[in-house]
Write a structure and sequence with these properties.
Number of strands: 11
Order of helices and strands: HHEEHHEEEEEEEEE
CATH class of the largest domain: Mainly Beta
CATH superfamily of the largest domain: Jelly Rolls
Number of domains: 2
Largest sheet: 7 strands, antiparallel
Oligomer: single chain
Distance between the termini: 84 Å
Shape: globular
Structural class: alpha+beta
Number of helices: 4
CATH architecture of the largest domain: Sandwich
CATH topology of the largest domain: Jelly Rolls
Length: 226
């Protein structure tokens, strides 16, 4: 009789533990689903990025750190040392600009690894890479967080394109696709113009390429510079 009572109590305890475990797992699943449904929102404007008409690097850094925190991207000592932010000299960082880091850019072995950071709605100026003492740069991209419009001058014009900021001016690249997390795309043809524009959630994109020679960089907007 006593053994039966012990077994009964053990069974009740096990069921209770199972219920607690299931409840905890259910709450965890709900939290994950809530996080997945949440999207990063635009928080900063040019009023934050310029002081007395000059681009404020610290304000740009603050904006990207906020986005990194949302996406769970660790901000490492190497990033603190080598990360950079630019408005390409166009004075419109809210809409035309980027953050980035060159993990590797090796002229001897001819390879390049780069992280592209774009705030919501931000675009990289349209550009091409031409041959110099080094081959014309060929590149591939993979989105890790958020998504981008990936534009190319190769291909037919795609309808319903997002508006290009007035500060940038006309573009040659009229063909685009929406590039989502995990999608890998390549430059369609060497030397052709292309650019990215982040969606409303911002974007973090990996780029792999042959050596990046800044002397081979050509922007559509003659005022833009990296």
């Amino acid at each position: 009789m006593r053994l039966k009572q012990v077994l009964t109590l053990a069974l009740i305890a096990a069921c209770g533990m199972g219920f607690v475990s299931c409840t905890a797992e259910s709450k965890k699943t709900e939290q994950v689903m809530t996080q997945e449904k949440a999207t990063y929102q635009k928080k900063y404007t040019n009023a934050d990025f310029y002081k007395d008409g000059k681009f404020d690097q610290e304000a740009a850094k603050e904006a990207f750190l906020d986005m990194f925190k949302f996406y769970g991207v660790p901000y490492t000592p190497l990033m603190e040392k080598d990360i950079w932010f630019t408005d390409f000299g166009l004075g419109d960082f809210e809409n035309v600009g980027m953050g980035g880091i060159f993990w590797v850019n090796d002229p001897e072995y001819g390879y390049f690894a780069h992280a592209i950071y774009l705030l919501p709605g931000q675009m990289i100026p349209e550009h091409a890479h031409v041959k110099t003492a080094f081959p014309a740069k060929h590149e591939s991209w993979m989105v890790n967080h958020g998504w981008v419009y990936n534009f190319s001058e190769v291909g037919d014009e795609t309808p319903n394109a997002p508006a290009v900021p007035a500060s940038h001016g006309p573009i040659k690249s009229k063909n685009f696709v929406k590039q989502n997390v995990g999608d890998v795309l390549r430059l369609k043809e060497l030397g052709t113009f292309h650019f990215m524009m982040a969606g409303p959630e911002g974007a973090i994109v990996d780029e792999w390429a042959c050596y990046h020679d800044n002397d081979g960089l050509r922007f559509t907007n003659g005022q833009a510079a990296l």
